[in-house]
Specification:
By secondary structure, this protein is α/β, with parallel strands linked by helices. It has 20 helices and eleven strands. It has a five-stranded parallel β-sheet, sandwiched between helices. The two termini are 57 Å apart.
């Protein structure tokens, strides 16, 4: 069976321009134009690199980025939205996860293995969609074989009339679907009539099969029980004790055992609807060439993969003799070869990191980028500082993005048939309060809006199913009344985070 070709290499004309990338990011992220500009250029440079001659293409290294700014101002969201724009493999990891490897940490190479797993799943999903139409045809034939077995296999079963219905129109048939297609009376057939009878039987079977095919497509058989044979995918449980962890051993036990253990087939009794989903997975797997999927996925990781390395400031700082600082410089030196460009062994093959884009981020309150080891600093040539959010930014965040909080809460309550109208003065009041709390307690950026909005809508969310009043107006007075305790209590952190 011919597998659909994988996605062809894009031309520069197909890629988004830096201005278009910024415009797309503006739909979800308010402000931070400098950071958006930097990532837009980095993304466009990846498309430009693909258009170069092969010898020059290998020489062009990605321009990794460090984003500097407090939490909640859009660092992670920028990187995540960037990856979605181009369907690039993207993974977010915490730098502190790799501290004290062997005790509470993880091997730094696991970030590339996880990124490869994500790429494999991404490409497999794309290929499943590509073969969906052909797989549905095969599933339909398999279902018909289960519902209406060929005549030779059912000669000893009870016969049914050719034009008999599957079940009574008004009744509900809960019995297993089994059918027989004999030619009426069970008289002994003469040898010279055998060939003619066989043709007649085949014609009748095919005609009845098409009748059931139409019923199947019309959804009339969805709740009927049917017995199907499925492969048992279970793998023996094995527990391994290793000081370095199973991830360093890099063994795919599922494939290893699956290659020499006998494949068991078990029968399951399910509805036609459930059977379709089960068989769809089996047929799609048969149509997909996994070797091509792996090749495409590794290519995507190497040429368009993005690793977002968060909390990098937690590993900044020179080695000291006290406490947890001991492991910080060690983690930096472990991460350095991957960012410089190395070859990582994964269960799908070797993956090069020379052209993976790394975007690091951190608040750098207790440290500064210059506290990183010089070699690591040199691998992040682009540095952008994100600005703290002010009251005007909060107001825009509440209303402008496609996924604005105001729109989310209104839509959620609309499902309960409660119409909520938030006035502009209410938005001003919420923005002012969020800015005030961030200034007084701890600056956690736009995340402050989530806690304030949740408290503001607490009563409405709880009482919405039983409320008599279906039209609610939220104005500045309503906001003040709901958040009065927050406003007058000096210890705001008692109520907000």
């Amino acid at each position: 069976m011919e597998t659909p070709s994988l996605s062809p290499k894009k031309t520069l004309a197909d890629a988004l321009t830096p201005k278009q990338i910024v415009e797309e990011l503006d739909k979800y992220i308010i402000g931070q134009s400098e950071a958006k500009r930097a990532v837009a250029i980095a993304l466009r440079n990846r498309a430009r690199r693909q258009m170069l001659e092969e010898d020059m293409r290998d020489e062009v290294a990605p321009k990794n980025i460090i984003m500097i700014g407090s939490t909640g101002i859009g660092k992670t969201e920028i990187a995540r939205r960037l990856a979605r724009l181009v369907d690039a493999p993207f993974i977010k990891v915490e730098a502190s996860k790799y501290t004290e490897v062997g005790y509470v940490g993880r091997d730094v190479e696991s970030m590339i293995r996880d990124l490869t797993d994500l790429a494999i799943n991404m490409v497999r999903a794309e290929q499943t969609d590509a073969v969906k139409e052909k797989a549905l045809e095969l599933v339909e034939d398999r279902l018909l074989d289960c519902l209406l077995p060929p005549p030779r296999a059912i000669k000893k079963q009870k016969s049914v009339e050719e034009d008999g219905d599957l079940t009574d129109e008004e009744g509900e048939d809960t019995e297993m679907l089994t059918f027989d297609l004999e030619l009426g009376d069970s008289e002994e057939i003469e040898p010279e009539q055998e060939e003619a009878v066989s043709e007649q039987e085949k014609t009748r079977y095919l005609r009845t099969r098409e009748k059931f095919r139409k019923m199947l497509r019309d959804g009339k058989l969805e709740d009927k029980p049917v017995e199907i044979s499925v492969k048992n995918q279970s793998v023996p449980f094995i527990e391994i004790f290793s000081p370095s962890g199973i991830e360093e051993m890099d063994i795919n036990f599922k494939d290893m055992f699956g290659s020499f253990l006998p494949k068991k087939v078990k029968k399951r009794r399910v509805t036609v609807d459930e059977a379709r989903h089960i068989l769809m997975q089996e047929e799609a797997e048969k149509l997909i060439d996994m070797d091509k999927v792996v090749g495409e996925a590794i290519g995507r990781v190497e040429n368009s993969g993005i690793v977002f390395l968060d909390e990098i400031d937690k590993i900044a700082g020179r080695e000291s003799k006290s406490g947890p600082d001991v492991s910080r410089e060690g983690v930096q030196r472990d991460i350095l070869p991957i960012i410089e460009g190395s070859t990582i062994a994964t269960k799908y093959g070797m993956v090069r990191t020379d052209h993976v884009l790394f975007i690091a981020a951190g608040a750098f309150h207790a440290s500064k980028p210059s506290d990183l080891i010089p070699e690591l600093q040199g691998r992040f040539p682009i540095r952008v500082e994100l600005k703290s959010l002010d009251q005007h930014d909060f107001k825009r965040i509440l209303t402008e993005p496609k996924n604005a909080l105001e729109k989310q809460y209104i839509a959620m309550l609309k499902t309960e048939e409660v119409e909520v109208c938030i006035t502009e003065d209410a938005i001003d009041e919420i923005a002012a309060l969020a800015f005030q709390v961030n200034e007084s307690v701890e600056d956690i950026g736009a995340r402050r809006l989530h806690t304030i909005m949740e408290r503001l809508f607490d009563d409405l969310s709880f009482n919405a199913p039983s409320m008599e009043e279906r039209d609610i107006k939220i104005d500045a007075d309503y906001v003040s009344n709901q958040l009065a305790e927050v406003v007058k209590d000096q210890d705001l952190s008692k109520y907000i985070l």
